[in-house]
Amino acid sequence: MIAVTTLDEFIIDRQDDFPFATGDLSRLLRDIGFASKIVHREVNMAGLVDITGAYGSENIQGEEQQKLDVFADEVFIKALRHGGEVCGIASEEKDDFIAFENEKSIQGKYVLAMDPLDGSSNIDVNVSIGTIFSIYRRKTEAGTKATMEDFLQPGTEQVAAGYVLYGSSSMLVYTTGSGVNGFTLDPSIGEFCLSHPDMKTSNDGKIFSMNEGNYHLSHKGIQTYLDKCKLEEKTARYIGSLVADFHRNLIKGGVYLYPSTSKARNGKLRLLYECNPLAFIAEQAGGKASDGYTRTMEIEPTELHQRCAYYVGSKNMVDEIEGLLK
Ligand code: AHM
Ligand code: MG
What we know:
alpha+beta; D-Maltodextrin-Binding Protein, domain 2; 8 helices; 15 strands; globular; binds 2,5-anhydro-1,6-di-O-phosphono-D-mannitol; binds magnesium ion
């Protein structure tokens, strides 16, 4: 028999790294692992059952919601409400945050921000999609309802963050601030198994990932950077699914760019649900994340669905972009 470390075993082993840990964070991470297995199952059935396609409603950003977005949102909320470790959830799919009122959850020490299914425009065409999550310690007293103050914390306050990639195989990657570890789902036993221990990204990379349809709408500095990448014969890779683009670049070395444009002054991606969690992972793997001027995790959020320009990946590549934006 081959020795494998499952996600649950790993989380329990790591709990001993935190003195005075009560196990709540460990339980929360396990709840996320469980919920993502259900989403994985559904994503894999997407072509078979009547679940693909539009759900017929729009979310707060005015984007059409897909059925699987709604499904994933509900699965995570249910699992976390049941778990009782978080007192509230902010989701990219919901206009406002949810403050749990049940007896157990109101005592929860944490809040969670998530994009339950990122890249959902890719669902119908069988391209990888993902879940992104970010966990903060609450600011308000346990036993009271969560408030906006609990969610509007800078990324530096994250206690854990991660993503699940539903791709050629499904993977869960997370950090609690002491390195990054990746787990691949073995569907035959229904367990995430440690496959990528202590993930590190290289300081330089060959890959640049941007929707170049936005080239002419972007800052001169970004245009210069893209031109330079081409002159240096770097590799262009853009899936249009942030989790998948980020994951590839993390492993192979590269940079992902979603700049502000003349049409979208703050870019497209959301600080709380997408940028901060992946910034935490990038930094923990030795990379960097920035809006071109400020370290992503130091941006003070003022609203839940705040957007920001985003450059993330290999450190020297992000440094170079920052230099060109000056
Ligand atoms: P979503 O949260 O509505 O799915 O949007 C986020 C996605 C990212 O996954 C992806 O990197 C980006 O939007 C692609 O945007 P564009 O189509 O403008 O290139
Ligand atoms: Mg998204």
